[in-house]
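Hi Y.,

Following your request, here is the sequence exactly as I used it, all 405 residues.
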Amino acid sequence: MNFAVAIQTEKNPAANTTAREWTAVKASATGANFVGVSGLTVSATAIDIAITRKATDNTLVDYNAQNLAVQTSATATPSTMLLDLAANLGEVTRASGNLTIDAFGFFQVSGALALNKNTTTVKLGDLPLTTDVNESTNAVTVEQLTIGGSGLTAFAGINGGSADPTGLNLTGVNFAVAIQTEKNPAANTTAREWTAVKASATGANFVGVSGLTVSATAIDIAITRKATDNTLVDYNAQNLAVQTSATATPSTMLLDLAANLGEVTRASGNLTIDAFGFFQVSGALALNKNTTTVKLGDLPLTTDVNESTNAVTVEQLTIGGSGLTAFAGINGGSADPTGLNLTGVNFAVAIQTEKNPASRPNGPRVDGCQSLGHRRQLCGRVWPDRVGHRHRHRDHPQSDRQHAG
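Below is the corresponding structure, written out as tokens. Let me know if you'd prefer a different format.
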């Protein structure tokens, strides 16, 4: 690490005034890793750290107008580090560099990101079960750490960064994270901590399922995590602008999710999907990820095993939409289609990957679903308006139980 500090005290203050003092810190590092938030991992290279503090009259030294070279060694030809922050940035407490982030196993992004720290207040959402307390009444003072970036590439889905990902490769990504830790917790309690992630992307393509193609534009990613007392920050009541670049006029991204949505792990946008050459749909669709259990159907040929006995824990990725138009048949999207043009379409896809697989060969698992190998399966359901909706439970009882699971 290279490190420089400048402390500047006014030499001739005005009569009857205290001498003003300004402080600046700059550092660089070749590597870093992030600690403190379970489920959020960050590694970094080429890190730059910058801190400036104003005087009592709120003035700041403008190092952009007059750079300051600080000596960083005591050798015969000493090395130096340049302080060059502009005063119009205000007080800063930030780090920037090339970061790689994994947000709760759902969203992975890498690129030039900016990290900022400040003390502020946040508003919480009221918990419906605590009828004697309104958590939204009093703002909470927090130490706030934000991470942001723009113009990046990213991934949203399951197994990102592995050889077997399932989800969306994203381009043109703007990205923001806020980590907020309670500054003055109640006596004998641990400080609460809240985390939120938001991202947008201009384009996307789907990977991981042979025969299922997805392209997308105008993608939005949202992740929120509650504190240990189940409270969530209400960004709808108090928006938070996260800096997404380290330039003189930095870009920002707005966190604005309402607390009453609960914890979310989702992506949404305008998607076009072709499901195995038979079904094509496009429109505003939502993609969600969660961990759950599913029940399997018993295979009649495995007489020594009843696959329906034990529920299977899975990472579940769902895609859904409503009020769409679609096509089911042959040659959909071509000049010579044969099949049904559908209107008023409700659409659902579930991709379920076994979380803790035993040692076994790959193979088909559940009737009515598409085997993806690696103990994954894809189950789909489409309900065109007034076509089959009323009878879906009778016609596909096993598939419906899986979705309920």
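The first strand starts at residue 2 and ends at 9.

Thanks again,
Q.
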